[in-house]
Design goal:
The chain is built from 25 helices and 2 strands. By secondary structure, the protein is mainly α. Helix 18 crosses helix 19.
Amino acid sequence: MSTIKNIRERINLFLYDKKKKVLTVLTIMNVIISLSSLGILVYYFGFDISEEERKICFKILQWSFAFYIFRFFTKFFFDFYPLQFLRKNWLEGVVILLLVIEGVSYNLTGNLVIEPLFRYLGFSSFADFSMIFIQLFVFLLIILSVVRKENFKPWLKIHPGWMFVLSISTMTLIGGLLLMLPEMSRVDGGMKFIDSIFLSMSSVSVTGLSTVSLASDLTFKGQVIVLILIKLGGLNTIAFGALMLVAAKFGVGIKYHEIIEDFINEDSIISAKSMLTKIIVWATTIELIGFILLFISFGNEGLFSDFNDRFFQSLFHGVSAFNNAGLSILEGGMMHPDVINNMFVHTIVLILFFLGGLGMIYVFDLFDIRRIRERIKYPWKTIDFGTKISLYFTLALLFLGAIIFLALEWNNTLDHEPFYKKIIISLYESMTTRNAGFNVVDTNSISMPVLIIFLVLMFIGASSGSAGGGIRTSTFAIMYASLISTIKGYKYTQLFKRTISNDLVMKAYAIFLFFIVGNIVGVVGLSITESEAIALGKFTFLDIVFEHVSAASTVGLSTGITSDLSTPGKIILIIAMFIGRVGTLTIAYLVGKKAISSDFKYPSGHTMVG
């Protein structure tokens, strides 16, 4: 044993002077090769290229894989503690091992070991999938390696809200450019820039509005891009808050912690890394369960008779439903003839809507096994205050909307439907109106009073920290509590036997007012850009109000005018979806000038109210 240690010590001494230079060169090469390979991937999948060009691209990507393998083993060899290196980089090691196995198999037999499995995913071969996965994985490793360096000089000393804005903007721009590629759509010459950016923003903001048909205008590759954008956008504001805390080394200081706490629960600040991991694991698990249940419920008839189509449809709608995206690759969405009468599918989607719109922090509080055991062992322990607000107000709004829809649409859109189906459709429409956009009833056929109620529900939206939008149930709950406390003459705002601070009450009213002003400005803008269509009777004023509130609340319901909007009108909706995703209060924080001091008070003033 001592002999092995002595040999290793001599090797370490030999490598010491060379390690830094070699690893620096490898790092520079890794960045260059990874970025070049991503560019090759875009060319390979995004354009209609010849077979000869495909072979050249594939050969270049194979050489990049060889470099990744060489780099990993070089890093392993140069590390002074090889076993610790393997434990620390086990995921990268698994990917490299897969590359080695598949490379040896391909060069000896001409076949890949697990290729048959990935043909079911719609890829022509496992090679296609592996090229995408490996290159994106390596690119992610580059980013993580930069973040991990303790001596990294922070240049991102910016407001956390700007980090959120930049991340949403970057994803939207990249997604829009990718969707413009010829192979992503069936549109001659590729999708127009305005339509691709619109769809990308709708996907990232998990809204659901689209100026093109995802079912008929997008190819499978384009649908995959949309699915990825939904998943990225669906990593909701809680996950982003955790990411900001992990990235505190970039320069996010104490002065921004209050802003960060607007994104996440204050109690979770200490455990940001574990919280982020937990969010990703739980969200992916729920999506996986939803995918399996939808795969079973879709059946194997009609459109779903083909296994590959059924697989991808289940995957897409499972992710879209949980993330409250409202985007569908079915022609007509959930009103497609093969699903419109499938109450099992509607029920599963409804549950996914509910969980996705509740907020992950509250899902943890309700369903985490450890917390459930604690509540059973100690009956006096109840769910958290924030969870009560999210759960109770979500349920109250869900049933209130369903009852109103059921009563007013009984002899209209629900006519001739059996009683049980009327109940499910009413619950479904009430939930989808607040945050999702997967309607099973033609919005144009709904009566005027119900459309107005839908506007109110869209305005309120989903819970804080969820993928949904609107002013959020917590804002509505605080305003409701403030109203009741004022009527009853309480000195302080009270809710669920808790006192709500004046700061929170003021913040709730600020969000409410910002949201109203934003929608008024947007609707006025649309009434100008779409004045000709309104004059011709093509649109009504209610149509554009409904469209803008839906976009600003990231709901995705429409009366069917989205694709007919003018280019300026589409730009207004893109801005509305962006602000709806980022949050009106975040925008206000960014553009507002921070007071030098808040520790002062003017003399009291009094005036009549009401």
